[in-house]
Amino acid sequence: MELAQVRLLVSDFTACYRFYADVLGLKPQSGATGGPYEKFSPHTGSAGIALQDRSMMAEVLAELGDTATGHRSLVVLRVDDLDAYCAGITARGAALLHGPAPMTDRMRVAHLKDPEGNLVELQEWLLLRG
User: Fold this and answer.
1) Residue 17 confidence (pLDDT) above 70
2) How far lies 41's CA from each of 7, 23, 67, 83, in Å?
């Protein structure tokens, strides 16, 4: 078994596309800015995040037609230099909810939300520094 991706069901596809591509700096697979689907990849690693228009999935699973409420996901991205990455994304329009700050003695984190309210955690693994 292999994890192919984490897929987020979104209502405002264009705003979420911009957030993951332009603000977080992930690489889109096809450039489908209007949806209904796009996969994003970091510059390293094999994991990916995909966006899918919620209304498209509601055609398959009717319960998804209801308005999404509450925190339904947490996307976690590892970065090498948390302070520099946070400075870059805030300059591009991101609003940090928390951090950068220590989470444990091994990790520093920062948290923000995408345009749909999905939580994003940015991690800097201190043990990898050496």
Assistant:
1) yes
2) 12, 14, 28, 21
For 114-127, how does the pLDDT look when each residue is reduced to its tens digit (9 = 90+)?
998 888 989 999 98
* Backbone dihedral angles phi then psi of residue 41, each to the nearest 5 degrees: -130, 145
- How many Cα atoms are found within 13 Å in the side-chain-facing hemisphere of 123? 16
Q: The pTM is what?
A: 0.74
- Give the DSSP letter string of 42-73: -SSSS--EEEEEHHHHHTTSGGGGSPP-S---
Separation of alpha carbons 90 and 37, rounded Å = 26
DSSP codes, the chain: -----EEEEES-HHHHHHIIIIIS-PEESS--TT-SEEEEE-SSSS--EEEEEHHHHHTTSGGGGSPP-S---EEEEE-S-HHHHHHHHHHTT--EEEEEEEEETTEEEEEEE-TT--EEEEEEEGGGG-
